[in-house]
Amino acid sequence: MSKVQLEVHYLTRVEGHGNIVIDAADGELKRCELQVVETPRFFEAMLRGRPYTEASHITSRICGICSVGHATTSLQATEAALGVIPSEQTQLLRKLNFLGEVLDSHILHIYMLVAPDFVGTGSVFPLAKSHPHVVLRALRMKKLAGDLCAVIGGRHTHPITMCVGGFTHLPGNRELEEIRARLEAMREDVTATVELFKSLTFPPFERVTEYVALRKPDEYTFIGGTITSTDKFELPVSDYREVTNEYLSPHSTAKHTRHHRDSYMVGALARFNVNYDRLHPRAQEAASALGLKPTCANPYLNSAAQVVEIVHCAEEAIALIDALLKRGIEPEAPKRVEVHAGEGVGACEAPRGTLYHHYRVGDDGRITGANCIIPTGQNLANIEADMRALVPTILNRPQDEISLGLEMLVRAYDPCISCATHMLDVRFE
Amino acid sequence: MSRPKVAFFDFTSCEGCQLTVVDTLQTHPELLDAVEIVQFREAMTEKGEDYQIAFVEGSCARKSDEERLARIRQQAQIVVALGACAHLGGINAIRNRLPLEAVVNCVYNENGDWSETHPYGRPRLSDRLINVEPTAKPIEAIITVDAILPGCPIDREEFARVTRQLLQGSQPRVPDYPLCVECKFKENVCLFQRGQVCLGPVIRAGCGAICPTYGESCEGCRGPISNPNMDSMQSVLAEAGLTADDLLSRFSMFGTYQMMKLE
Question: pTM for the whole thing?
Answer without folding.
Answer: 0.93
